[in-house]
Amino acid sequence: EASTKTQRDSILNFAQDYTTRSSINFTNVRKERVNPEAKVRLWDIENFNVSYSQTKFAHRDFINETSIQRTYRASLAYNYANTGKNYKPFEKIIKSNSLKLLKDFNFTLMPNAINFRIDADRLYAENTLRNNDPNNVIPINTTFNKNFLISRVYGIAWNLTNSLSLDFNATNFSIIDEPDGRIEGLKRDTLWQNLKTLGRTTDYSHNVNVTYKVPVDKIPGLDWITIATTYGTNFNWQTEPLSTLRDPNINLGNTIQNSRIVQVNPTLTLSSLYNKFGFVRRTVGRKDSVGKFGDVLVNLLTSITNVNINFTQAKGTFLPGYLPKTKFMGIDNVSGA
């Protein structure tokens, strides 16, 4: 009761076990399409969406002088999906089926889908213990826990022709290196500079898949053969540890690896081939003894109706000590590696 107001506030600050929490969240904020029948364009604002969330936690008691934790999450996404127009320049010019390979030539100028997403995730926490021992002369330092991550995901799907399609997908993980201690003063400028470059890449990977139906069935007389092919490849780049990255006397290099898969799947529809021979139809239609013997012989010769072949080849490379970095699509903008 004899304490002053300032002393009372100080005692209350020590005695209370006090916690506050607050949060705000916006998820998938976007503009809806007013007319679902309207043409979808690359630059439509409806292709974009944003999300943002923020949480704050603060605590104090007789042991902890102050303990705060803040998390921030933000994302910007772009999604475009549309069926591109397919062009057949020779369809109306060439009438003969013997030139079907050229007649059916086609291409698509626009991709079927484009997607991009960037996510930022930041954690900032600090904790300061009270000096409750009057005999203690050792300063009690504030401890910090910080983590600032950025991820980028992008991809494209494109049916280049009716028989040729391409899929490309990439993922990039990076970290925003923050100065030690509380972020204030010039440290804010350093943080913003690192943020403008989207951080230091720690892991990058992409994969490409190309599927192609070889148009051998468009060649006269070979319409009973179909050949499906697939080419798939992936690439991964991982940074060296931060401890050696900051040491000019040690250069372990980064780590890269890739792989490639080639698949060829021919299918022979022999039943369609058999129907091309007139003697098969004539023999089956006869009712005499010759026809019965012919049925047995034809059934024996045509007993195999389909043949499926599968060829797969897989290869890969693992290479540690790789010095170049990665900027765009895994390529280093200095050496071009």
Strand content: over 45%
Instruction: Report helical residue fraction.
Output: 10-25%
Q: Treating each run of at least 4 consecutive H or I residues as one helix, how many helices?
A: 7
The chain-level mean pLDDT equals 89
Uncertain stretches: none
Query: Total strand count, please?
Result: 13
Characterization of this structure:
This protein has 337 residues and is an alpha+beta fold. It is 17% helix and 45% strand. It is built from seven helices and 13 strands. Strands 1, 2, 3, 6, 7, 8, 9, 10, 11, 12 and 13 form an eleven-stranded antiparallel sheet that branches. It has a two-stranded antiparallel sheet with strand order 4-5. Helix 6 crosses helix 7 (289-301). The longest helix has 13 residues, at 289-301. The protein is elongated.
Topology:
Layout: H1 5-15, E1 18-29, E2 48-60, E3 64-81, E4 86-87, H2 100-103, E5 107-108, E6 113-129, E7 143-159, E8 164-175, H3 186-196, E9 200-214, E10 225-238, H4 242-245, E11 254-269, H5 270-274, H6 278-285, H7 289-301, E12 306-308, E13 311-322
Antiparallel strand pairs: 1-2, 2-3, 3-6, 4-5, 6-7, 7-8, 8-9, 9-10, 10-11, 11-12, 11-13
Helix pairs in contact: 6-7
Brief digest:
By secondary structure, the protein is of the alpha+beta class.
Keywords, separated by commas or semicolons:
single chain, 337 residues, alpha+beta, 7 helices
